[in-house]
Specification:
- The chain contains three helices and three strands.
- It is an alpha+beta fold.
Length: 98
């Protein structure tokens, strides 16, 4: 007759590692063909919750320094903003924020 063998019960603690993705920034670069009005207008359409005064200030910064961060957020929203801004021929880059 076989002898019953006890098998040890193991509990496995599951571990979940959450890795937060860095926020992303959308950087708009200056060019020689879009007007202030065009840039300000596209920023207002592309960047959520941006006021007209903020859009104008960002346009001035882009012109004066060559570029400006116009949006900071998750990758999906950054891509959406950049896609709209590019529609008028402006060079846009998306980078992981520091």
């Amino acid at each position: 007759m076989p002898v019953p063998v006890e098998t040890p019960q193991h509990t496995v603690a599951s571990r979940m590692t959450v890795q937060w993705l860095p926020p992303y920034v959308v950087i708009v670069h200056d060019n020689d063909w879009n007007t202030f009005e065009e840039v300000t207008g596209i920023l207002l359409r592309a960047v959520p919750e941006l006021t007209a005064a903020e859009a104008l200030e960002l346009t001035r910064e882009i012109h004066a320094t060559g570029s400006a961060v116009v949006f900071r957020g998750d990758t999906v929203m950054a891509d959406a903003c950049a896609r709209v801004i590019r529609t008028i021929g402006i060079r846009v880059t998306i980078e992981a924020a520091n």
